[in-house]
Amino acid sequence: MTGPADLYSELVLEHARRPHRRGRLAGAEGHADAANPLCGDRVEVWVNAEDGMVKEVVFDGEGCAISTASASMMTDALAGQPIGSARDRIDRFLRAVTEGGVEGLPEEQAALAHVRRLPMRVKCATMPWRAALAALDDAEAAGGGPS
Amino acid sequence: MTAPPTPAPAAGRGALDVRAEFPILAQRVNGARLVYLDNAATTQKPRSVIDAVRRFYEEDNAPVHRAVHTLGERATAAVEGARRVVARFLGAESPDEIVFLRGVTEAMNLLAFTLGESLGPGDEVVVPLSEHHSNLLPWREMCRRRGATLRLTPLAQDGSIDMPALESIVTGRTRIVSVAHVTNVMGVVNPVREVCALARRAGAVSVVDGAQAACHMPIDVQAIGCDFYAISGHKMYAPTGIGAVFGRRARWAQAPPWQTGGSTVERVSTDDVRYAEAPARFEAGSPNAAGIVGLAAAVRWLEGVGIDRIAERESAAAARAREGLASLPGVRVFGPSEGSAPVIAFDAAGAHPHDLATLLDGFGVAVRAGHHCAQPLADWLGVPATTRASFAAYNTVEDADALVEGVGRALETLR
User: Fold this and answer.
1) Count of A–B CB contacts within 8 Å?
2) Counting Cβ atoms within 10 Å, is residue B173 exposed (0-12), middle (13-18) or buried (19+)?
3) Is the peptide bond before B154 cis (omega within 30 degrees of 0)?
4) What CATH fold (topology level) applies to the domain B53-303?
5) Can you give the residue ranges of every domain in chain B?
6) Residues of B involved in catalysis
């Protein structure tokens, strides 16, 4: 497989068509947004933490199939995880997309990591995960993190 | 699968075919014939332009306006010859009315920061809502600094300038009216002649952004009646980083210097400076001589092929694309259906423009996706982004068919 179309596998498109945990979370402990000035896309992430765990994570926004699928996969990866592990997962995905190496990544994230070959589209995939990282920081600053 | 397109009309006898003159188009992209439809962003360059630039560097390169040696004289003659070529191309009265600079963005900054210097509270600058940021932000910034008011004129339903509204907005307070000849998102051909007449009656300076027009139609600044007209070389088959702005001699004379330095002066002493007249006054530093030579070669290429023949061929290809796209389910084509330049903006339900553009690239079709540096227009259309296909002299009806088929396939994948 070579070429831009590889990125649009069913694994990715399924998330894009029916994204998981799309919504808004009023009064969440952690919130962050990110935008791509190049295309006008934006994403918002809300998290609630409890006992050092990511209790809830949701996203909303306006974006392409890649950013929507990526946001959906991000919520799957983070929900119910200890905050430290959530951060590790974010870090691992971001490294896979920017530096390469998909060993150990869930299959769907590995499929999305094809975006690495399309430098102009990498930000579409990374934006939701970076927003999630900022939302976790925000939640921990608010006292929802490990006590 | 969408309905197969009807067979392309056969090329008539003597049909224009310039594709072979563009070396870059010979390649395959992602295994497919390259169909380059991002011409409103930048056009490809014909062999004659590439050769002119190479020849300049191989044979004539030297300081311009500064050297008495043979090469210096040749380089200066090449630049001044190019000025005459561009002056004739735009219909200027004199080559001295042509200032070379990087392109329309730099032209608008030059004009905003020179003409705008005399603006004050109560003065107004008028710009249509559909403008590229390059013909919006320089004016906005200068108005902010001078306490003047920037007025964005509304659009008619099809995206063209709402002329009755413009007539009420342009008043005795209006100092400058700046408008695109052809808009960069939807290819709307604005009634620049009427707009400039309106500005003139109000005693305002008229500025026309010709970035999207000069490659598609003959330009005559006398017929348009504008005070300034700016072009970008790279959007009309010339190299990147070079453009020109025509200004009436009397208007240039009113403009204070902008970027200053070498070439802009007649005399500098320790405590005084006397600036040169246009064009030297506005051409600080060593010019992009190779770019200027390339720009003149592009003008000669356009004139040699014939801009009317180019327009005819582009229009045929674009009309076919417009029709094919509009027939796809859920696809909306923006802008007037008649009389526009071969620039088509569209969107498709359930498909983000960036995904469409990436999938089209997989079929060798290069288009632009985004807000096209015209965010107020995107807001007006009510969309975050659109996909834009823009045609040039080398595009054919086969290219239009490849676009429509590619969009159809992409929509099947995404939906």
Assistant:
1) 54
2) middle
3) no
4) Aspartate Aminotransferase; domain 2 (3.40.640)
5) 53-303, 307-414
6) 373
ipTM here: 0.88
Residues 6+ apart with CB under 8 A from B63: B72, B75, B286
Q: Which of A38, A39, A41, A116 is the mutation pick for testing B, counting most B CBs within 10 A? A: A39
Please determine, looking at this structure, whether the domain spanning B307-414 carries the CATH number 3.10.450.50: no
Q: Spell out which residues of chain B touch residue A7, defining contact as CB-CB under 8 Å.
A: 358
- The pTM score is 0.91
Q: How many CA atoms lie within 13 A of B156 on its CB side?
A: 12
Q: What is the pLDDT of residues B224-233, one digit of tens each?
A: 999 999 999 9
Chain A residue whose CA is closest to B413: A8
Whether B53-303 shares its CATH topology with B307-414 is answered no
Q: What is the three-class DSSP state of B386?
A: strand
Strand pairing report for B124-128 and B174-180: parallel
**B211 phi/psi in degrees, rounded to 5:** -55, -40
DSSP states of B38-87: BTTT-----HHHHHHHHHIIIII-S-SSS--SHHHHHHHHHHHHHHHHHH
Which residues from A are below 8 Å from B359, CB to CB? 4-5, 8
pLDDT tens per residue across span A39-58: 778 999 999 999 999 999 99
Express each pLDDT in B121-154 by its tens digit: 999 999 999 999 999 999 999 999 999 999 999 9
Chain A residues inside the 8 Å CB shell of B353: 39, 64
